[in-house]
Structure formats: structure tokens, C-alpha cells
Amino acid sequence: MNRLADQVPLLAVTSLTLEIGSKQVVRQWDWCARPGEWWVLLGPNGAGKSTLLATLAGLRTPTQGTIILDGKPLSDWPGRMLARRRGFLPQRPLCPDSVSVREAAMIGRHPHLGRWRWPGPEDEAIVQGALATVDLDHLADRPVATLSGGEQQRLAIAILLVQQPELLFLDEPTNHLDLRHQVALFQALEERRRAGALLVTALHDLNWALRYATGAILLDGNGNVTAAPAGQSLTAELLSALYGVALTRCTCRQIILQPPASL
Amino acid sequence: MKKAADNRRRWLCLVAVAAATLVSWGAALTVGALALPLETVWEALWHANHQAAPIVRGLRLERAAATFAAGGLLAVAGTLMQVLLRNPLADPYLLGVSGGAAVGALSVILLGGAAYLVAGAAFVGALATVALVFALARLPMQPWSSTRLILTGVIIASGASALVAFLLTIAPEGRLHSMLFWLMGDASFAQNPGWALVLLAAAVFGLVPWLRDLDLLPFGEISAQALGVPVAALRITLLALASLLTATAVTLVGSVGFVGLIVPHALRLVIGANHRWLLPMAALAGGTLLTAADTLARTAWAPHQLPVGIAMALIGVPFFLWLLARTKGG
Questions:
Q1: Which residue of A has its CA nearest to B220?
Q2: pTM of the entire structure?
Q3: Which of B216, B222, B272 minimises the CB distance to A88?
């Protein structure tokens, strides 16, 4: 990454207010994020994490305020151009039953392919690589209907990787994943971050947040937002208050989990 | 690699359907009260003053074109409805098109209007009903919901069928026969099928750049949107287009059932859900099926003519059950 790109915000939010019905999720919120950062979105159930994530991704119109991606308001981005730069993993991804894993992963190339074009060898190679990353390459020709819950989640992640966005929104990406694949997922995402991607992830597992996040956005569900670098936001006091559970931060002497350098 | 096998199956299916198209047109032009050999038909097709020309060009060619266009339009509309409403049971008539067309057409038949008036009234009735369904489904400024649209369509359709029943009840004996034929689908009054064929071709070619967008819809609205599909605009535009195609088909041959529901399903079982293959193939297969069914309807019980809808079910039901039985899972 060159130094200049580190300075310029990729995503900037000004006086954002977000309401679901009569409930305020976010009130008059200003925030910005730069390439190479990884923000986690934390909060109790129903605090509005998914709503905020979808809004930041441009998939939902805010009640008030503007969100600016690369100098241009999100609402001014044509859908296809936006889709080349911004990816979104929904909390409950759907998959049609009748397509194969490979065909499903290929939809990630949609915004990159011309309207009259068919996927070519380079697209196939990207799909193959993404399927290998999420450990689905051996199931590439299976119908999606035969996949388990965790495998379907990995397929949804593969679609996001195939899309190759520089701005990634992930809503609880660890859903249904076993520990081994959670480790692999975070390693793959960390690799994207090091390459200059900006990640925003709604999470419930604080351990993953502590390990990888460079910043955290805390939603209390009443419109109050605390967004700060990880050192100032992922503290025992703030998190205890956020969840209403007494938390203590400790560093284990015993090794519980030590991910290998590569799987 | 599995992908190569998929493509081979798609090409094989395309060749088979194209061959069936030729056979069905050949049969439609040669078979009938006066059986004509293929050479005579060929001669008559190219020479307007050939002695067989009135039968071949005037009657049979027009009828084959009308049934082909209508079948193709219904199959394309059915394909669109099933993917747009994410409902495998969706068919072209779901939003009340056929009910509205039937009210229009039957009213004119009851009043003794000419055939072109029947067709015009069917077309207007169909489009008016769809407009009503869309307007009501959005009231009072609800966000768009396919469940709401389907429910509104179903309710308006039942209202229309009550009106149809009323028209049948008060109809004099002499008109009842043609009213019933119209309801079951009847190609004998079809006229000017040329513009329906043009519409079918224009719809299929015009849709090609958008067909990959349709492949993304089953992945959920939010994922499709995140990948750059203009979901809301696409859905409303294509539902309107599907309604227009259906209205055109119904105007030509009445409300023939089955073809719009079954053809997309059958093709999806054989070639998969890739719409760049599915939609053009549906046009071809739907048209072929209805042309074949109409030829059967004209000849199976000669000199009586059956409504094409009955022949359609005679061919379609066993074929689809067979296909379903030999496909694993489904």
C-alpha cells in the first residue's frame, strides 16, 4: 500500500441516522474508514447490526445522512460499478438447489462480465481459486442442494471472494462454520486486508474480534454508537456495558487454540 | 469435467427441440381433413397461385404460426414469472391475465361481436386486469412484496372467474359453444399471428443481456442486489413484459393452460436453470408443443375439432409425469 491511500478514507459517513420503524439504530453518526482497516460491528441481538451493515453497503436507504464511497455518495453509484468494489455476505445467504457449486460461485463474476459475455477461462480460474480457499474445490460439481449448512456458508463466502471487492461487508460470517473453517476464513480475510481491502464484519465472537479487528463499532440499540480503534473500543468496561455481562480480559498461559501458519 | 457434460446435454436438447419444431410444422401443414404430401405443401408455400395454396398458406400456415407464437410467448412468460416470483407454481395466468382476457372476450362473444373484436377485447381485458392487480398490490404505498402481488392476482382472478361463470350462465345456447371453446383455448379464430411472432423474437433477443441477472435472483434479493442486479426495477419491468406476452398469447388462442407452467419446468429438469439457455429454449419448445397439440386437436377426433387446451393436456400430463419420474430428486 502506498502512504497516500492509507490517508484517504474509502468510506465516509456523515450525520447518519437510521431508524427501523420507530426504533433508532444510529443517531447523527460520523465515521470514516480507510483501506487496510478491519472494523467489527458489535452489539446485542436486535441492536440493528445487520441494518447498519446493509445501509453502509448501499443496500438500504438511510433515514438521514450520506455515505460516501471513494468521494462519491453511494446513491450516485450505478449498481454494477458499485458491485465491482463492494461485496456483501448476508446473514442467511440463499442458494438455489438446482445449480452446481461451481455455477453458484460463478455469480460472483456477474458485475465484472459484460452483458453479452460468457465467463471465460480467467473467470473459471478465479472461481477455482476461491473454492480452494474455502475448501470446497472437491465438491465443485455437486448440486448445491446436497451441501451441509456449513458448506453452504462457505459457498457464500466463495462467491464474495470471486467478486474480488476492495470493500467487504460480512454479516456474521462464522455462522455454521466449524472451528477449522473459521480459522481458515479469518486467515483468508486477513490476507485480503493486508492486500489493502477494507472489511466491516458483524460478529458475536469477541475472541475473533480481539484477534483481528483494527477498530470496532459498538451499537447499544438505542441509537448510541461508539466507534474507535480496537485499543479504545474493545475494552472490558465498554463490552461489559454493551452486553450487560461482566467481562474480564485475560491472556491465557495455556494455549487453547493456536492456528497453524497455513491449513 | 462436469461442465462439458452439462453443455453437451444443452446442445443435444437444443438439437432435439429444433428437430421437433421442424416435425411439428411439417405435420401442421400436411395433416388435416385433406392430407397433403410434403412436396405439394412445399410447392404451395412458395407459389401463391398453387391450387393447394389457400389451404396451406391461408389456413394451416396461419394456424401453425399462431399456435407456435402463442406457445412460445406463454412458455417465455411462464419462465419469467417462475424466476421473478421465486415460485415454482407460478404460471403466466397467476396475475389474472387470463381471467381479464376471458371477461373481455366472452362479453364480446355474448354480444355477437366479430372475431377481431373478441381478440381486441381479450387483449384490453388482460392488460386492464394486470394494471389493476399491480395498482392494488402497491396500495397503500407498501414496499414491493411478491406474496402481496400473488395474493392480489389470485383474488382478482377469482373475481374474474365468477364474472366468467355469470356470463356463461346468461349466455344463449347458440353462443355457449364458442364461449367454452375460447375458455379452453381454441386456435381456429387466430388471426394475424405475424406480429405475435415478431414480439416473441424481439422479447427473446431483447432479454439476452439481462438473462444472467435472472440467474442471480434465486440467491436472494440482497445478494443479487449486492452483485449489481437492479432487482426492483428488473422485477417490475419483466413482470409487465410477461403480462404483455401472456395477453398477446391469450388474444391469439384463448387461455390455453399448461404450456406456460410445464415447459419451463421440464426444460429446467433437463438443461438446468441457466436462463441464457432456458429462455430461448422455452420459446422454441413452448411453440413446438402448442403447434403439435393443435395439430392433434384438429385431427384426433376428425371431423370434430377439439379445443387445443385439451390436446395440450393429453400430450403434456403424461410427458411431464414421465420426466418427473425419471429425474432424481427434482
A1: A94
A2: 0.90
A3: B222
